[in-house]
Amino acid sequence: MYKTGFDKIGFVLRLIKNPSGYIVVLLYIYERIEKLKAIVDTLYEKLQVEYRESQSREKVDRRDT
Q1: Which helix (H) or strand (E) holds 23?
Q2: From the centroid of its chain, how far is CA 57?
Q3: CB 30 within 8 A of CB 40
Q4: DSSP letter (8 states) at residue 2
């Protein structure tokens, strides 16, 4: 679900020679805007749950084989 979004971000960062300045600005904005922080934190939590579930499914699949 989120993979295409991360692929797009990675593509943009590869185009920029030194993305650290942009990352610092994004982190600054993230820390200052509470609504954005709430949205990002919620998405991050969902990603963590999704990752754990996918890891569990992979373990079960490996055991079956």
Answers
A1: helix 20-32
A2: 20
A3: yes
A4: -
Contact criterion met (CB below 8 Å) for 36 and 30: yes
Tens of pLDDT along the chain (65 residues) come to: 455 566 777 777 677 777 788 888 888 888 888 888 888 889 889 988 988 888 888 888 788 77
Cα 50 to chain centroid, rounded: 11
Closest alpha carbon to 65 in 57, 41, 51:
57
In the numeric block, which tokens belong to residue 33?
């805007």
Given phi > 0 = left and psi -120 to 50 = alpha, else beta, which region is 16?
beta
